[in-house]
Amino acid sequence: KSESSEASLRSLPILPDSDSLADAVAEIIADMMKWEGIAFLSQNDFSPVTKLSRRNVKVWPIRLPASIDSEDDKELMLTLTRLRSAQRRRLVFHSMDSSVVKFVMKAADKLLMLHSSLSWFITYLDFGDVVSIINRTADIYGLQLLNRHSVSSSSSSNDDLNNAVLCDSVGLLRHILSQKYNCSKEPEQNVNLKAGDVMKFVNDLPNGTSAPYIGTLSKYVWTNSSDNTGKMRTQYSFGIMGYNGTTTKIGNCTFEGNNITILETKQMPSRDQSLDKVLAGHTFTVITRVEPPFVMKTGSGRYEGFSVDVLEGIAKEMNFKYDIRELDSITQNRSDVEDDWDTLIKQLMVGNASMAIGSLAVKSSREEQISFSFTIISSTISILTKRPVTSPVLFQFLWPFSWQLWVVIIAFYIVAGGALWVMSRYDVTQNGSEQQFDLKESIWYSFNLFLGGGTEYSPQTTSMRTMIAFFWFCTLVITAAYTANLAAYLTLQQQDNRIKSMDSLSKQMTVKYGLQKNSDLMQFFKDSSIDPFERMWATMKLEEKTRLIPDRSTGIELVKNGMNGSDFAFLDLALMNEYAALRHCDMESFDQNFKETKFSMGFPNGAPYKDDINRAILILKERGQLDALKDKWWSIPATAECADYVRPEDRQKPTAELDLANMLGVFIVLLSCVCLSVLIEISKRVMSLINGRRKAKQ
């Protein structure tokens, strides 16, 4: 035999050989746990993969980085992130390195891969050391070879398995010495323990001639390996453990030569699936971009907004914490909003964040990269326009006639009254009458006829009656014309001529319109072959530099100030336009029933906690909390100047009744006439009093 072969035969393994362990792992997974498909993680030892495949278990091998020096190792995090995206729910982690096991499990915990929807099997032979760093509720299975009760708790090392190997190596030599010599006496001089003595002890163990040593790693008995190239341990056993909040021994694995016996002893207790327990205590890294009213940042650096309140409601429901982060590269009012979200999505994909919130729209292209929660809020498209100026017109009752016509009518009645007075001077019927038809009475008579008032005097001569008859006719025509024009004018005043639909917007040329450049809405108009969208896109394309707006703030400013002397209408999401209208008194938004956009929370693909978040969202919906939050953030702020603002859909009246502003001028004229009459009467009495005193002095 070669020297290497002889060395192998004379070496004694303390830990189980890799081939026997691979057989045990394969049998436990295939026969006891009945897993049909797994992801197998290891740095370099993939010996169980072949044995699992022979038992009809589908295996996806995942090679971990060769060197893992921390739980934040970039290559490790990237590997686990890709594994999470593959959505493998049953994972086998094969390693005998305590530090590597702990780094990998801590990294998995950070990525929420120790969630209750996942199951892990860890082949490290000290399961108690593994679960000591785990505080999640995932189903975690493993092997317990080390008798932890026999390990000194005063050891400063965190690697109890390696300590046990050292202790058992020393203990084994001491046991062999005690079998040959009486250790209670002083040994004779020149007495040595030879290699042959040790091998004789080992060879006598299987037949019971030598007493086996039982250490912290079970009973030590060796036999020749199946290929006779070395020694392998036999006649030992280890526990099969389970953990889902509490540790339970669920089985036992015993080795007898090349035979492996698996005995299932107990089922793991069912875990608590209540919503407030599955993610309790975990801290999520949440990534976002600031865009009112979804996410806003206060002067103190605190985040607020609709999406932040939704996240806070979910966190309270599920008892987890969160840390909101905004990418340093993101600035507000940029023209590459879609690029910003693409950057955020990449951060989710590489594992730098657990979820994304804000105005994150659900799109088919994004669905290929990340996962979305249930819809939190949705929006159609709307038209943001400037509100028409509605200043009250006090004397609008004079508007049916032009001022020139009013002057002619007044002159007409003065002339008619003067003519009556002149003709009455030649009316012999007035001779001896108590009431003379003088100039004052003549003007009063014509005014009464015009207003339809009654008078006691009636002209008696044919000439005067002829003139009065035609005067009545002219008064009738003027009154009818005034009534008709006033009714038409008031009707026009009640008509709503605002642009409230895409069709009316596309058919006019006075109000210019545009939308945000490189947005989903622009792509919709560009690809649409439906009228009026196709026609509107052709119009906007002709003036691309002015009609395609770089960002929302520019669009709002154009609506407020106009474009080149013309009014401007901005097409955008209804949620954004309505928010702008509620904060600018001179704007209003009109919803259009097309292109619904849904907003959700974003997660990395395969995120196991997505279903739990969705359950919490459904609870908030059922309680009406999402509706209440929408009303909170899409409402007029208390400090707004237009606190009396009424939404366009609420501003329509069922009838065209007149209000005080329509008739206020009439009452002003009435009040003025009353005041004038009072002044005339006072002046008349004062003059009468003065004249009376003058006469008394004379």
UniProtKB/TrEMBL annotation:
<dbReference type="InterPro" id="IPR001320">
    <property type="entry name" value="Iontro_rcpt_C"/>
</dbReference>
<keyword id="KW-0675">Receptor</keyword>
<keyword id="KW-0407">Ion channel</keyword>
<feature type="transmembrane region" description="Helical">
    <location>
        <begin position="660"/>
        <end position="680"/>
    </location>
</feature>
<dbReference type="InterPro" id="IPR019594">
    <property type="entry name" value="Glu/Gly-bd"/>
</dbReference>
<keyword id="KW-0813">Transport</keyword>
<keyword id="KW-0812">Transmembrane</keyword>
<keyword id="KW-1071">Ligand-gated ion channel</keyword>
<feature type="domain" description="Ionotropic glutamate receptor C-terminal">
    <location>
        <begin position="283"/>
        <end position="636"/>
    </location>
</feature>
<protein>
    <recommendedName>
        <fullName>Glutamate receptor, ionotropic kainate 2</fullName>
    </recommendedName>
</protein>
<keyword id="KW-0472">Membrane</keyword>
<dbReference type="GO" id="GO:0015276">
    <property type="term" value="F:ligand-gated monoatomic ion channel activity"/>
</dbReference>
<dbReference type="Pfam" id="PF00060">
    <property type="entry name" value="Lig_chan"/>
</dbReference>
<feature type="transmembrane region" description="Helical">
    <location>
        <begin position="469"/>
        <end position="492"/>
    </location>
</feature>
<keyword id="KW-0325">Glycoprotein</keyword>
<dbReference type="Pfam" id="PF10613">
    <property type="entry name" value="Lig_chan-Glu_bd"/>
</dbReference>
<keyword id="KW-0406">Ion transport</keyword>
<dbReference type="GO" id="GO:0016020">
    <property type="term" value="C:membrane"/>
</dbReference>
<dbReference type="InterPro" id="IPR015683">
    <property type="entry name" value="Ionotropic_Glu_rcpt"/>
</dbReference>
<keyword id="KW-1133">Transmembrane helix</keyword>
<feature type="domain" description="Ionotropic glutamate receptor L-glutamate and glycine-binding">
    <location>
        <begin position="293"/>
        <end position="350"/>
    </location>
</feature>
<feature type="transmembrane region" description="Helical">
    <location>
        <begin position="397"/>
        <end position="423"/>
    </location>
</feature>
